Amino acid sequence: MKIDEIREYLPHRYPFLLVDRVIEINLGQNITAIKNVSINEPYFTGHFPELPIMPGVLIIEAMAQAAGILGFKTAGKKPADGSIYMFVGADKMRFKKSVVPGDQLVLHAEIISTRQGIWKFGCRAEVNGVIAAKGGILCADRKI
Predict the structure, then answer these.
(1) Domain boundaries, the chain
(2) pTM for this structure?
(3) Distance in angstroms (rounded) separating the CA atoms of residues 142 and 123
(4) pLDDT 10s digits, 88-136
(5) pLDDT, tens digit, 9 for 90 and up, residues 8-48
(6) Phi-psi region of 126 (alpha: psi -120 to 50; beta: other; left: phi over 0)
(7) Rg of the chain on CA atoms, in Å
(8) Does the annotation mark 108 as catalytic?
């Protein structure tokens, strides 16, 4: 999926759209997506000017957005249909490596379970095959 299609499945827009491309998706199973990290990201002016590091909460958000695309596509829904996936929790989230400008963050999410509109995903973010972050993410499918 390229950015035009991603924008159909995520309601986020600049500067909060954190998925640049989907390179693989298996409906009902998993997704692999990419976030290209650039020094032009607005958060680098303050986090940290002398040592720019992508904030961990934004890495979690990027994984949640990839998971949201997987959920939307699996359920056959789009935000335009009046549905939204809201991030509602993170389990056992761990950070292993700093993400810096120039990195390509590869986002992986797999469906663990879905029940009563609550989706649980196993997620990880990697840079050059090295895990930068991993953990569980919970999203709620809600009407807008």
Answers:
(1) 3-143
(2) 0.97
(3) 21
(4) 999 999 999 999 999 999 999 999 999 999 999 999 999 999 999 999 9
(5) 999 999 999 999 999 999 999 999 999 999 999 999 999 99
(6) beta
(7) 14
(8) no
- Closest to 62 in 3D by CA, of 103, 97, 107: 107
Q: Choose, from 12, 47, 97, 124, the residue flagged as catalytic.
A: 47
Q: Give me the amino acid identity at 4.
A: D
Sequence-distant (≥ 6) Cβ neighbours of residue 96 within 8 angstroms: 130, 131, 132, 133, 134
Q: Could you give the CA distance from residue 137 to residue 144 in angstroms, rounded to a whole number?
A: 21
pLDDT at 118: 96
Q: Which amino acid, one-letter code, is at 138?
A: L
CATH class for the domain made up of 3-143: alpha beta
